[in-house]
Design brief:
Layout (H helix, E strand, L loop, with lengths): L3 H4 L42 H12 L22 H7 L2 H4 L11 H18 L3 E3 L5 H18 L7 E5 L5 H8 L3 E5 L9 H7 L4 E7 L11 H10 L3 E6 L11 H4 L3 E4 L1 H4 L14 E3 L22 H19 L2 H16 L15 E4 L10 H10 L6 E2 L8 E4 L7 H20 L1 H5 L12 H6 L7 H8 L1
Parallel strand pairs: 2-3, 2-4, 4-5, 5-6
Antiparallel strand pairs: 1-7, 6-7, 8-10, 9-10
Length: 473
């Protein structure tokens, strides 16, 4: 930690005249750069020797946290391990060197994979057909809502401009509906955390285009009233949309298509082990029931993305599905649910459990049970960093003031989960006996607690050499 190369910026390690490269002899002659694109002054680049550069970036790379080096219980995001074989498949030259404009006859194998994944997702979801074009979950949501809107427009039913969204929905649901030009109508949850059917009844009329649902919902609870909800929505002429972000615990248990859903997207980068985070990569294939196939991108005038989606992510997902096979894919849901309930039951005596029922793949605490310590969910999350764990999702969903959302995946061992439980209990004890230690966390990370509000409102994303030199003087 005291190594100067560890915490400094690469610019701060720069010394004039040092270099870590040598260019080959110029064999192409000298050409004048056009004035309109020529720099007016030299680029502000660091001047460092090769070993300094290698050590600098190697040290910083070790600060990255991911499922390859630690437990990552990020609720609502399903940070599942991405097996190395998936990476090997995605890197195969026959796939990695494809060009988007290649003639179809030269990439039959790649198209066969595309078709195989479509058919696998249809079998898993109970829907008739998928498009793999969308590049992310929210992209898939937009695609699905465009399909719903187009369905009504083709029938001349243009007054249907409303989408019903539960108050516990992912934030992307209302955002996607708004981008699609639809009006969002919120349906409330019951005290038990599921959709209030009676409130829903009062919202249904001939202006409703569809209803978006996540199952299990954002609280990690199974929406047991779906058959009645689907019947009510369909009876008023609207369609049912399934947000597949929480599909992980459903694998091998039930299928959205069998529940009455007409359209859904699947987050391949959650349920099917492909890497995500930091803005990408991702994939959000969209499936439809029989009768809606012609509305899928590529089958109609609707188009949301070029070529064949985020192909490398699709490859990883297909490798994961084929590796588990039909038999073992059925074990994913029950194991994810078991792990989540085990953590919940092991910690509910020291953390507030607002809805005391069996959860699915994730659950939500409302901060510490002992509120008198003044230790917040943010403090608990920061203290977890000191113990080498990534924090769970915090302050979401918005239904609770101190939400702490935990999601272990099916592949975590009991030893790993027991270690996390013990640390969570230790933090609860610290909050009671030495609260300032928890409030001041993290203590052992390269950077301490930052001002989140200032960082969000005034982020510093570039390095200015002259400003830095002026400050140092």
């Amino acid at each position: 930690m005291n190594n100067k190369l560890y915490g400094n910026l690469i610019f701060e390690l720069s010394h004039e005249g040092r270099r870590g490269y040598s260019l080959p002899h110029n064999k192409f002659g000298n050409y004048e750069v056009p004035a309109d694109i020529r720099r007016s002054h030299d680029a502000e680049l660091p001047e460092c020797d090769e070993l300094t550069v290698v050590r600098h970036y190697t040290n910083h790379s070790e600060n990255n946290f991911g499922v390859d080096n630690g437990f990552y219980p990020l609720g609502s995001c399903t940070m599942k391990y991405n097996p190395c074989i998936n990476e090997e498949v995605a890197a195969m030259p026959g796939f990695a060197n494809l060009h988007p404009l290649q003639p179809a006859e030269t990439c039959r194998g790649a198209l066969e994979v595309y078709d195989g994944l479509q058919r696998a997702l249809s079998e898993i979801s109970g829907l008739a057909k998928f498009t793999l074009n969308p590049f992310a979950g929210a992209h898939g949501e937009l695609t699905g809502l465009m399909i719903i809107r187009s369905y009504h427009e083709r029938r001349g039913d243009t007054k249907r401009t409303k989408v019903i969204v539960p108050d516990s929905a992912h934030g992307t649901n209302p955002a996607s509906a708004a981008v699609c030009g639809l009006d969002v109508v919120e349906v409330k949850s019951t005290p038990e955390g599921i959709v209030d059917v009676e409130d829903l009844r009062s919202l249904l009329d001939d202006t409703v285009a569809g209803m978006m649902m996540t199952n299990p919902n954002t609280l990690g609870l199974f929406e047991k009233e779906i058959p009645e909800i689907a019947e009510l929505v369909h009876s008023c002429g609207a369609l049912m949309y399934y947000d597949g972000a929480n599909l992980n615990p459903m694998l091998g248990v039930c299928r959205p298509g069998d529940m009455g859903f007409d359209v859904m997207h699947i987050n391949l980068h959650k349920t099917f082990s492909t890497p995500h985070g930091g803005g990408g990569p991702g994939a959000g294939p969209v499936g439809v029931r029989a009768g809606l196939e012609e509305l899928l991108p590529g089958e109609s005038e609707i188009s949301v993305g070029p070529y064949h989606g985020n192909y490398a992510v699709l490859l990883r997902a297909y490798a994961y599905i084929l590796t588990l096979g039909k038999e073992h894919l059925k074990e994913v849901g029950p194991l994810a649910t078991l792990n989540a309930n085990y953590i919940k039951e092991s910690l509910k005596d020291v953390y507030e459990l607002p809805i005391a029922t069996t959860c699915m793949h994730e659950f939500v605490f409302d901060g510490l049970k002992d509120k008198s310590t003044g230790v917040t969910t943010m403090d608990v999350a920061k203290r977890l960093l000191d113990y080498g764990y990534h924090a769970p999702t915090i302050y979401f969903p918005l239904l609770f003031h101190e939400s702490l959302m935990i999601e272990p995946t099916e592949n975590e061992s009991k030893d790993t989960i027991d270690g996390f439980i013990e640390v969570m209990r230790r933090i609860a004890r610290e909050a009671a006996t030495e609260p300032e230690t928890v409030k001041g966390a993290p203590h052992y990370t390269p950077i301490g607690r930052v001002d989140d509000v200032l960082a969000a409102k005034h982020p510093v994303v570039t390095y200015r050499q002259m400003a830095a030199e002026g400050e140092s003087k």
